[in-house]
Write a structure and sequence with these properties.
The protein contains 21 helices and eleven strands. It is an alpha/beta fold and 521 residues long. Helix 12 runs antiparallel to helix 21 and helix 15 packs antiparallel against helix 16. This is Peptidase M19. InterPro entries: Metal_Hydrolase (IPR032466).
């Protein structure tokens, strides 16, 4: 995504230089990387880092940037204070200050920001362009990647040769390859091949279909177009995102300071409308009777991350559970989430109005905004043998201002969330004793790296994954010793712990995608 943002509006220039490729590294700000700051000034998981980190399975989100990130907002009379009106005027996309904020914060070129703000910017066109960019070098083996250093001053005063020599893992991939599988057979083969990265395509937000402009009939045709005309399958779609997609309610996701520039209130915390229900079913290949319809093509799974608690409740009650009763198991995915520590979706809905910064559950450990998954979500994930991808965003995981620089901002934070998820399943009265241990097969890495997140400080990029795995082994080994609690009782040795961490880091995701990757035929 970072490479595409930089190159999409200057494609011919980059093509002339042989740099228009997903392998091209946009040189990072190393100070931001070393300090583990928010991932705007540096790449967290470009292909070169992924290759050198021995990352061999990725879920790559195609994401047309939402216009609300780069455009001004309209304050509401009677609801907003006068300061909001002043901020709205000062940060209008028609004034240069807004462009300055976006280029400084998101670190993408001004030409791209201007395009995103223009009437010419179309989500659907952008989605297709990104798909073509991401797949263009699939299956090819490169001898060496290119590097692009943004900014004239940096190009003059920084030596790419020196950086490549000093930091090869960040800058240079040799004899490398990735593959976006065309079929289930190709996916299975690629996952077993350590000589290439298996890249599974997903879509981040149903707005990507152009729901802001297109009729619902056209949106429906675009779902069919993805299934029939795209060369590679899409594995899942994160149905909601940060702003109104005109289909279903999204969860509150922007912290308090962000509200000065961004307004996500429209349809926030609401449920599905009828158009949303229709498009949801069509992604899943279901007709109105919740029967599989071959005319609707292969099944694209639904990721509930960013869905409001109300939308998730409706999705489960109206689609997932009725289909489960009929024997059609639709696995629920939460691709890059934290654990909320809240018992039910109804409790989340009840508490929505309380969601301010640093709002935690009763234990004080977990971020209890309804963007995170509760005990009821985890129950459905276990029952459908779905997947809970653990985010590496420290705020999502429960870091507050008071402990931002504490020892907790590391492996302790990630282990607290993993153990919270597991204990939730083991303590759930609606799960059988046979079902409860399955939670260990339903959790995996779901970092959200490259999503402008503020990562858990010791692990700002994929290059730290090996360190993370070793730290996690140590944490679990310490926790299981002595009088081990029920959820750890099956871990009898250090070797058992290592296998559990290997499952979390790779096997669970690999087995899940092998089972559910679609055949377009």
């Amino acid at each position: 995504m970072r490479a595409h943002f930089w190159m999409q509006e200057q494609r011919k220039r980059f093509e002339r230089r042989g740099e228009f490729s997903p392998w091209t590294v946009i040189a990072s700000n190393r100070k931001g990387y070393l300090k583990g700051k928010m991932g705007a000034s540096y790449s967290q998981t470009d292909l070169v880092k992924a290759w050198n980190a021995n990352l061999r399975l990725t879920f790559n989100s195609l994401y047309p940037l939402e216009k609300s990130f780069v455009k001004g907002f309209k304050p509401k009379l009677g609801d907003d204070k006068w300061t909001r009106f002043l901020i709205s005027f000062a940060t209008s996309h028609k004034l240069p200050f807004r462009d300055f904020i976006q280029t400084a914060y998101m670190r993408i070129p001004d030409e791209a920001v201007d395009y995103f703000q223009s009437s010419a910017y179309d989500y659907w066109e952008s989605l297709n362009r990104e798909m073509e960019f991401v797949t263009k070098d699939s299956g090819k083996r490169i001898k060496k990647n290119e590097v692009f250093t943004p900014g004239l001053a940096r190009r003059i005063f920084e030596s790419e040769k020196t950086r490549k020599s000093n930091f090869p893992n960040e800058m240079v991939a040799v004899d490398a390859s990735y593959r976006v599988p065309l079929s289930k057979e190709e996916l299975n083969s690629s996952v077993e091949d350590d000589n290439e990265i298996t890249m599974v395509l997903t879509i981040e937000g149903a707005h990507s279909l152009g729901t802001d402009r297109a009729t619902i009939a056209e949106v429906s045709r675009r779902v069919k177009h993805i299934k029939k005309e795209w060369p590679t399958p899409v594995f899942f779609i994160t149905f909601a995102h940060h702003f109104n997609n005109k289909l279903c309610g999204h969860a509150h996701s922007i912290p308090d300071q962000g509200k000065a520039l961004l307004d996500q209130s429209e349809l926030m915390n609401e449920g599905f409308n009828d158009n949303g229900r229709r498009i949801l079913r069509e992604f899943l290949g279901l007709n109105k009777k919740l029967e599989k319809d071959p005319e609707l093509g292969y099944r694209i799974l639904i990721d509930v991350k960013h869905m409001s608690a109300k939308s998730r409740k409706e999705y489960y009650q109206e689609v997932v559970l009725p289909c489960l009763e009929k024997g059609d198991v639709i696995p629920v995915i939460g691709s890059h989430c934290g654990y909320s520590g809240i018992p039910s979706l109804d409790k989340h809905i009840e508490r929505m109005e309380n969601e301010v910064d640093d709002y935690c559950d009763d234990s004080g450990l977990f971020n209890s905004w309804n963007i995170n998954l509760c005990d009821e979500d985890i129950e459905i994930i276990v029952k459908t043998k779905g997947l809970f991808g653990l985010s590496f965003d420290q705020r999502i995981l429960g870091i507050t201002d008071k402990d931002k620089d504490s020892k907790r901002n590391g492996i302790q934070l990630l282990w607290e969330n993993i153990e919270g998820i597991v204990k939730s399943a083991y303590g759930n009265k609606n799960l059988s004793e046979e079902e409860k241990p399955n939670i260990w097969k339903c959790i995996t890495i779901g970092t959200d790296l490259e999503g402008l997140i503020d990562p858990v400080s010791p692990y700002p990029t994929v290059l730290e994954f090996e360190v993370f795995a070793g730290n996690l082994i140590f944490e679990i080994e310490q926790a299981r010793k002595g009088n081990a609690p029920k959820h750890l009782a099956h871990l009898k040795s250090l070797d058992d712990v290592r296998k559990t961490v290997e499952d979390f880091c790779f096997n669970n995701a690999a087995n899940f995608v092998k089972l559910h990757y679609p055949d377009k035929t």
